[in-house]
User: Fold these one by one.
Assistant:
Number 1:
Amino acid sequence: MESESIDSPDMSNAEFAKALERVSDWIVSYRTRVGGLPVLSRIQPGDIEKALPSSAPLEGEPVEAWLKDLEDIILPGVTHWNHPGFMAYFGITGSAPGILAELIGGAINTNGMLWKTCPALAELERVVLRWYATALGLPDWFGMITDTASTSTLVALAAAREATGLDVRQEGLSGKPPLALYCSEEAHSSVDKAGLVLGVGMQGIRRIPSSEAFRMHVDQLEAAIEKDRQDGKHPFAVVATVGTTSATAVDPVREIAAVCRRHGLWLHVDAAYAGSAAVAPEFRWTLDGCDQADSLVVNPHKWLFTPIDCSALFTSRPDIFRNAFSLVPEYLRTDVRGAVDLMDYSFQLGRRFRALKLWFVFRHFGTRGIAARIREHVRLAQELTSWIDAHPQLERLAPAPFSVVCFRVHPAGMEEEPDLERLNASVLQKVNATGEVFLSHTKLKGRYCLRVAIGNLQTNLERVRRAYRLVCEAAGIPATGI
Amino acid sequence: MESESIDSPDMSNAEFAKALERVSDWIVSYRTRVGGLPVLSRIQPGDIEKALPSSAPLEGEPVEAWLKDLEDIILPGVTHWNHPGFMAYFGITGSAPGILAELIGGAINTNGMLWKTCPALAELERVVLRWYATALGLPDWFGMITDTASTSTLVALAAAREATGLDVRQEGLSGKPPLALYCSEEAHSSVDKAGLVLGVGMQGIRRIPSSEAFRMHVDQLEAAIEKDRQDGKHPFAVVATVGTTSATAVDPVREIAAVCRRHGLWLHVDAAYAGSAAVAPEFRWTLDGCDQADSLVVNPHKWLFTPIDCSALFTSRPDIFRNAFSLVPEYLRTDVRGAVDLMDYSFQLGRRFRALKLWFVFRHFGTRGIAARIREHVRLAQELTSWIDAHPQLERLAPAPFSVVCFRVHPAGMEEEPDLERLNASVLQKVNATGEVFLSHTKLKGRYCLRVAIGNLQTNLERVRRAYRLVCEAAGIPATGI
């Protein structure tokens, strides 16, 4: 029996080499010109759907055809997180070493579900997470790389639920006392989502009020735990945040840890954004008390120059994760002594070679280079802070300990919140329409504010000045101080 | 205030272009020589940990240094899923277009949590999933790309739990009736893991016996549902498998769907491996009845030439997913009409540009090219099947409808299972030690068997013959028939 004709199962080496060259050229060109493109895509919903065929081609097409569509159809629909004017959400940045690693990882295309299925993946993950923990001043905990902080927090809180001893793994949650989970009102929505998935329910998620500096009130945390106990609830975990999403506030982790110890609760720390600051010695305080945590998440794809996705989950109690998740069917049994199979610590089985990019990032920049770049981002944010603070018609709405500044335009005499919100929303809309920068907004204690987040390697003082000027222009106020 | 000196925030364009060239050369070389490397890594646990420094470098190092370590330290620790002799688990394969897309995705480094944060990502995901659904003969359902089938199944079963109307989202599972979830005894472990995470508990997961062909017994499914109802349990979902992990059996989906309809249960189909076969018209039967499902997962990173990770989750009931997961904090509120924000349908917020690789794969191969390659994999497996069936000392232990063959060495007179297991485990060990092929094992109805899974684009008839010969040699029997 002969095979039907397939000219070549994949591209030939020569074709592939040529395509790699073309794509490499495109990427270098893209990185060169991205600062001149509009940050925020200007297409309308449906534009790309309409521009592409409704079904896949029957026959293959040459690489030139897809690269042309990439340039003509896809690129205008990209919001450029690589743009030096991207200052929304958390400004993030890939980097050359990270991109090279994604290329290599795609080519090696291995799946590290078991140690045996790619020992290099399992061991490099161990090595780079040790490097990372050491650079952050954390203990040499067990670590694993997941896709996002949402997953890391979900996995950690599943372990926390396991640690209750209620045997939810075997018996399920029905018939158990209602669980209660604590975080501050400023915690990320991923905590709620984890609570939903785990069957805790919104009613079991307590959002503890925060101080004027947006840090969790520890006395109110403890009071809530005690009240829940009296009411027959079963408190099981606290999520402390190091760098809240809106204001980058740092919860008092050491005090929260003491509460957790007193009440036998799991402490998970969400340091997804701000944790990486601790690579710089003067920001080591950021993770103060975190050595008392049971688990901690910090995302290299946020502020460590690593392309998305890459989230690091550390824990001092890996055995609990194993108890929560390990489940080895026959077809995955191995007999390798001394090997750690990462699938045993999470619900995810397939696992790509993400450690490569973190490794390349550390080797290219070195910890001193990383610290210098983080320091520079903070410096830029502090410059902006100083202009805002000196401006009579601008009002800062939160401390700015890192590289994020929350503020609003506040003309003399305008005191009604709805008026201020309308004004600032309109300023935001005008600024973003320029395409030169992209800012986002949030609300702090009910007050609408503009949010500038600096985290891109290409952002410089000139671009921050420009952002400031654009805000002032949109608000019709002078751009003083710069 | 002046910045401290950072020579260049990232590699210069010239350096980066040169590094891309070096890495491209390395990749082309790797792809050329991978077939001559040992498939299964031969390192011992700890070898790579010992070979690398225990902390990150202080100062950056040149790209040559990391690439040298990649070659000398990392590569020997890689189990080569790219190797044409990789026939373990599910043989998978990346492809040139997929690798190019990973490179571009890493460079664009966008996060599609909202439509607005990368419209191209959201819309291309919609377009390629429509292409995929159409190619598989599925309805034009709502779809989203996740990392792995484990995540897809977890998200789908969270939606199923939401569809019960028990308001688990708000109230949690405590105080609700015990949930029950059904799948066959041959279903993947990810179903159990989803059940654990969701708070169903192992006691709530019913593994329904399967037939001699490893297909779920539908009458026993229905009996189990009825019994659970009588016992005060709350049945909520059935997972049918299209291509079970061990034997690639296809559950009778249409009949299972009828049971689900009768009892008001959610039907999730796990077609992670075999679903893609339906791209070939003669395998369209594979997904028969799946149009009746509420959700279905199929993984392009398994049998659609797409680098890991890429899992497609389709659903006819996207509103239920939204009800289960949507939760929009102020800082993520947008005002774009007609746009779908993918974060509302899952617990994961961050989302990388995975649609690119699926797009490139379709455009490079075309659906005919994809079908031809799947057909070829099945043909190779059928050849192997014919040699096994004709061999008096080999015994096939399951039907082989796709590209996976389960069999064992069975010498005349050896009838005790422990003896057969010992013999076959030893054959497996010897075959894998050659480094020419890598097979895995499983148990079917308690019988230990060898498992050959063909799914790599570079696997050809010669390599399959070699695998067969190696098994026969290791067992000390003649390699007849080839």
Note: The mean pLDDT of chain B is 96.
Number 2:
Amino acid sequence: MSELRHDPIQKRWVIIAPERGIRPSSYYQVQPGSAGEDEFCPFCEGNEDKTPPEILAYRESGMPENGRGWRVRVVPNKYPALRIEGSLDRKGVGYYDAMGGIGAHEVIIETPFHDEDMADMSVNNLARIFKAFKERMTDLSQDSRFRYVLGFKNYGKSAGSTLDHPHSQIIALPITPRNVAMELKSAKEHYQLKERCLFCDIFQYEIEAGERIIRVTEDFIGYTPYASRFPFEIWIAPRTHSHDFTLIQDKQMNSLAELLKEVLMRLRKALNNPPYNLIIHNSPNIKGSKKRSHYWETLEYDWHWHIELTPKIIPTAGFEWGTGFYINPVSPEEAAKYLREIEVY
Amino acid sequence: MSELRHDPIQKRWVIIAPERGIRPSSYYQVQPGSAGEDEFCPFCEGNEDKTPPEILAYRESGMPENGRGWRVRVVPNKYPALRIEGSLDRKGVGYYDAMGGIGAHEVIIETPFHDEDMADMSVNNLARIFKAFKERMTDLSQDSRFRYVLGFKNYGKSAGSTLDHPHSQIIALPITPRNVAMELKSAKEHYQLKERCLFCDIFQYEIEAGERIIRVTEDFIGYTPYASRFPFEIWIAPRTHSHDFTLIQDKQMNSLAELLKEVLMRLRKALNNPPYNLIIHNSPNIKGSKKRSHYWETLEYDWHWHIELTPKIIPTAGFEWGTGFYINPVSPEEAAKYLREIEVY
């Protein structure tokens, strides 16, 4: 059984999840579930019985569940970091604080085709993936034990992906991750002072400044942040204020899919198909929090959902991990210019 | 010229250092200075003229500077992330805040021998490396522009090392890194409440609990933290309260070297020579801060220096980077037990 543990120095929760299956003899090997290029893939069409039963699938009408004919399919993670059953069981452990590893861990299989990377997919299929994120995140947010529902994608082994078949993941957490809590604090302070959204202000400034813009569409902005931690770090966000990704409408999903496809194509060409991580920074889930605090009352004004996309083109050095302080060898202005100008069509 | 930029959402400073030499055509290649196994190594004995002139060296008496005969040698980083000359030049840039990339970036060449890893070295030489850290960190702390002097080591390519020859680094920063500031905040709150050091309390509790201990000596504790972010994360700290690493005495340096050697030997055997990062979490430098704030007045009681050692045996997934929330598949109790029991002598 996995467990959440609180670090009293960094004031951060960590999931200790030994049941993911790593044993002493294989500590220095890769994570369970890893597959090489030629190995059997449980995510490919026809192998639906090799995953846990599906939670959601978009498939041709009339085709039965857990069989062929799907376009996007969501299944529970076979090696979940957190389990859906049980109570939070908050407790003190000697000097420390712990709680049960309660949550959810799902996999969005983005396509039936093993080698169809996100950058190759049709805009329609990308929109379908966002639709799956929306449906599952909406559903998980109903559970008042969950404080945060995290949607993300790891692409490439050095970005943490253990299966090559294109997939994303959703993790529902009983706590709000520290970085999200810090972003929210900044945004809240800004709103209290100015009655304006911090993110809206920044996006507006970036559109005026122009030098860090990759692409601005009617609905979305794609840009490289002023203080980018990583080379070619990219943010994508709705231009109209919205705190909750799950409120996204179909038309916006298409527009988001279009912009993401363009960004991924540019990244792939510019950086020779780099590994990357994509994270949806959504609003915390306040279903279970409302009764606890007035802190959340202005959440819909404070927060602005956005996607953070970070290619991993240089190894992260030790002091970044240990200090929270980053050295980025590529200026975001240079990165944005390069991405804007590279020809992909 | 590199620049420090402030992230208004994460409230974190980032160094944008384009002068480190990465150009668009090589964005997806490794960092400058990388060398393969067989390539020329500027850190080997006999190649002293291929580095900038040395800042410090421990060598046989009578041997001239910048020549052979040294045991440990400190030189400026040829591709510094920060430069020593100039003023901080704090300024607003449109919506944002920036300051000049002022600091220092030095390399400790730990041994004349290319293939003598830290785990192979004599205790005497390890103590010599700590002595070099102490001397250089003491010297850099005299500069009131520097708020923090960071000593660290990247071992192995996937831990960010770009040269195989054993070396450590020192970076002097005009700001205190965010994680250090957060640790200090926790420690300060604890001290104000209890008039006891948070770190001392934790180390004492760990010695009593025992299950996460790797080794306790007269002077030092080596253990795996309760909420370890990474598999086999290890902390090493002095058992007697001390806020400042640079106050370490010769006898303690030997004792520290002994413990570190043992820990590194155990790690190497347990995890098949894993890449790792080692960071000295020292006290912030208050030479330039005293005049600004009472916050620092109790620093010597609040802070407790320690070493954080994090092997990199699994790739870090996307959501860890993006959220500050970690999943660790190996419990620290299991890791400590495995490290304690593995035979290395």
Note: The longest helix of chain A spans residues 250-271.
